[in-house]
Amino acid sequence: MSSTSGPGPAAGWWIVRNPSAGGGREVAARLRRALLDHRVDAEVVVSQSAGHVADLVAEGRSRGLARFAAVGGDGTAHLVLNGLMAHPWPQPPTLAIIPAGSGSDFIRTFALPRTVEGGVALLGGGQVYRCDIGKVEGRFGERWFLNAANVGVVAAAAARAGRLPAPLGALRYGAAFWLSLAGFRPADVVVDLGGRRIEQRALAVVVANGQFFGGGLNVAPQASLIDGILDVEVFAGPRWLAFEVMPRVIGGHHLRHRAVKRGRASALTITVPDDWPVEADGELLGQGPVRITAHPGAIDFVI
Question: CA separation (Å) from 206 to 56, 100, 164, 213, 214?
C-alpha cells in the first residue's frame, strides 16, 4: 500500500503471534477456534524472534493491511507497535491485543477481557479508540511505547522479571522488584519537563501513557491516553521508603506520598547515571539519559 495514495486498506486482520506466549500450541489452537467462532477474516503469522516481528508487520503492510493484532503480552504489542511506526501511514493504523502473555497490563486501562477468546471477540465487534503513544530516545536509538517507559530500579526489575520462572506469572514482576531494589543505589536525577524541573535523589523515574504496569500495579492512576500528555513520577530514595510506597501503588494511592514527585509533560528529558537501565513496555532498551515525547492520536486501539 502506498503511504500517501492509491486504494484504501484491505479489510482483514494481520495477526502476529508470539509462539512462546501463554503455552505455545495451546494458544495457537484456542486462537484458531476463536477466529472461526467469531468469523474473523484474518491471517496469522508467527514470529521467530523479536527482530522478525518488524519484518512480519512490513509484510502485512505490503499486502495493503492496516489492521494488526499482537498475540502475547505487552512485549509482543510493543514490538508490533514499533513495526507499525517504522512506516508512514495516511491514517493511524489499527492495533489490537489478544492477551496471551504474563503481563498484558496495557489493556487493564480499558478493563478489556484478558483471554484469547475475549481478545478475538473484539476483532469482530469492538470499537476503535484513537490514542496517544510515546517515544523514548537515548544512546540505544529510538523506540515507541504504548504503556510506559521507566528508568532506574523499575527498569532493572522489568529486565529481571523476564529471567524468573514463567510459572510465577504476574508475580514475577513483584519478586523482580524486591530483588532488584536490594542492590540498587539511589542517585541524583534531573527531570526537565519544559518549564519545570524535578531534581531529586531517586531510585526510579516512571513515564506513563497508560495506568497499569508491573503485573497489574496502578502506577499512574491519573494518566490519560487521549490528552497528548505523559504522566511523570519520580520515586525518591532511600530504599527503605519503597516499603511504604509499594503497598500503596497496588491501588493507586501513592501519589501523595512524600517519596513521590509528580509532573506532566508532552516532552521531557531525564538525566541519570550512564549505567541506569531504561525499559519500555517491559522491554529493556539500554542505559543512560533519555528524551521522551508524547505523540497524540498515533494509533487506533481496539476496545
Answer: 31, 25, 22, 11, 11
Q: Which of 112, 130, 131, 132 is nearest to 122 (CA)?
A: 112
Tens of pLDDT along 225-268? Answer: 999 999 999 999 788 998 999 889 989 999 999 999 999 999 99
Long-range contacts of 30-33 (CB under 8 A, 24+ apart): 30/116, 30/117, 31/71, 31/98, 31/116, 31/120
pLDDT band per the 50, 70, 90 thresholds, residue 162: confident
Looking only at the bridges linking them, the beta strands covering 197-208 and 148-152 are antiparallel
Q: Looking at the predicted structure, is the pLDDT value of residue 163 above 90? A: no
Is residue 11 classed exposed, middle or buried when 0-12, 13-18 and 19+ CB atoms within 10 A define those classes?
A: exposed
* Domains of the chain, earliest start first: 13-126 (3.40.50.10330), 136-296 (2.60.200.40)
Chain-centroid distance of CA 73 in Å reads 9
Distance CA 39, CA 37 (A): 6
Q: 270-300: per-residue pLDDT in tens? A: 999 999 999 999 899 999 999 999 999 999 9
Contact 26, 80 (CB under 8 A): no
